[in-house]
Amino acid sequence: MKFLSKTxxxxxxxxxxxxxxxxxxxxxxxxxxxxxxxxxxxxxTEKYIQPLDSAETEHLNSAIKYNDNYYNxxxxxxxxxxxxxxxxxxxxxxxxxxxxxNKAIFDERISFxxxxxxxxxxxxxxxxxxxxFLNFNHPTLSEQRxxxxxxxxxxxxxxKFAIEDILNxxxxxxxxxxxxxxxxxxxxxxxxxxxxx
Length: 197
Description:
By secondary structure, this protein is mainly α. The protein has helices at residues 11-14, 24-37, 94-97, 103-109, 125-133, 139-158, 163-172, 180-187, 192-195, and strands spanning 55-59, 73-77, 110-113, 116-119. It contains nine helices and four strands; from the N terminus they run H-H-E-E-H-H-E-E-H-H-H-H-H.
């Protein structure tokens, strides 16, 4: 998952923007900044957020909602929050150490292959619990990833695309970058340059 990292240079921190109860304009601005920081993606599903999608600020640790800050906020598609396992993981260690907010540490502990996120070390119960907490492998989400990859493969095969053609396709069709981790894995490509432009 590419969009769980946090940065001390965030505009949200610089402007000291906090989620406020009954402050729709403030909260809409916060969501907009989060989604922008996340390169237009839902932090939990890696779906590219379309203009008519319902994006909102999600409180990763819902137990501290209204007493939280930037490090607990993510821009997500509304339905992504429905699959989060809040009650099961109240007080979980990952909610305080936030290991997943550092991409290098996340990549050392959690990987992706065959359409499944998994803990690299089978004894890393914290990583396993975090995967379950955000429901990375929910059957509906897994099916959507599979279908998206299948369609892309069929399109690229029919067009006889080489790697550079695939990269150009994504440069011109960023909305097709949903499930970007699966895309990078399937096509053995790095799309970070496209995200940063």
